[in-house]
């Protein structure tokens, strides 16, 4: 499949081999199909499609792609928006579906519906109510971040049903004196020196979106949810900056120097 493209650059360290002069960066784009291979069904010339992942090489006016790597873009979605949201949207969808899916039910299952004594929540808006629901009576909720946004206002009556305690602490209030600061930092460094975290049977993961969109069904389902949320207005995409493809180097320089923020799209 051959298509012309709108491109969304991102900054990631890549290791590449071979001739650097022949290297073409980036793994995400949206474009119009201009040719299809013999016998291909499901895609035709003129279709608007997008992709994120392999193969590398979307910093180009045209690119040849396997048909099973692209997803259809609804006609109501601008191709610039599609190029901007395809990777970030699917990554967010993965995090919400895989990391936060039914965590209340899972906690209830583990604790036999008794709940937990303490919840430490750094996500904020998307998990706040669920975190409260995980607590046992007289439990403590410690909110120390809001990566998904500021939680909605909470009436005191929401705490009274289980006599819950809620706090939004600031580290600075607990290290206000030099003695507090030295004690707190000393405990942290002592744990690092002793290897204290090694005896806790912890789990560590560094997931890759590509492993969760490896099949065409997974890819179509994930991208379909993202585009459906864009169409319905649940997900509002803001493309902050556009550059001509010929100015890709300048776009990266501006990103690296923090002159621009948010979504950036390269236009051939």
Automatic annotation (TrEMBL):
Residues 18-266 form the Enoyl reductase (ER) domain. One of its GO terms (cellular component) is cytosol. Gene3D superfamilies: Medium-chain alcohol dehydrogenases, catalytic domain, NAD(P)-binding Rossmann-like Domain. GO terms for molecular function: mRNA 3'-UTR AU-rich region binding; NADPH binding; quinone reductase (NADPH) activity. Keywords: NADP, Oxidoreductase. InterPro entries: ER, GroES-like_sf, NAD(P)-bd_dom_sf. Signal peptide: none annotated. This is 2-haloacrylate reductase. It comes from Quercus suber.
């Amino acid at each position: 499949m051959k298509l012309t493209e709108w491109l969304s650059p991102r900054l990631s360290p890549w290791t590449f081999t071979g001739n650097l002069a022949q290297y073409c960066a980036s793994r995400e784009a949206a474009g119009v199909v201009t040719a299809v291979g013999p016998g291909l069904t499901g895609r035709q010339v003129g279709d608007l499609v997008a992709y994120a992942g392999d193969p590398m090489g979307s910093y180009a006016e045209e690119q040849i792609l396997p048909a099973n790597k692209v997803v259809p873009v609804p006609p109501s979605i601008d191709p610039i928006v599609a190029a901007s949201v395809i990777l970030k949207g699917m990554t967010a969808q993965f995090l919400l579906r895989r990391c936060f899916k039914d965590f209340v039910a899972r906690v209830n299952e583990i604790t036999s519906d008794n709940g937990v004594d303490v919840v430490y929540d750094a996500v904020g808006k998307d998990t706040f109510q669920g975190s409260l629901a995980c607590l046992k009576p007289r439990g403590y909720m410690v909110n120390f971040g809001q990566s998904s946004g500021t939680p909605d206002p909470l009436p005191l009556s929401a705490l009274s049903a289980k006599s819950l305690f809620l706090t939004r602490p600031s580290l600075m209030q607990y290290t206000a004196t030099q003695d507090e600061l030295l004690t707190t930092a000393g405990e942290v460094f002592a744990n690092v020196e002793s290897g204290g975290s090694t005896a806790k049977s912890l789990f560590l993961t560094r997931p890759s979106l590509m492993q969760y969109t490896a099949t065409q069904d997974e890819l179509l389902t994930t991208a379909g949810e993202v585009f459906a949320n864009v169409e319905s207005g649940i997900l509002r995409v803001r493309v902050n900056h556009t550059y001509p493809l010929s100015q890709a180097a300048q776009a990266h320089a501006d990103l690296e120097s923090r002159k621009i923020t948010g979504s950036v799209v390269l236009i051939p």
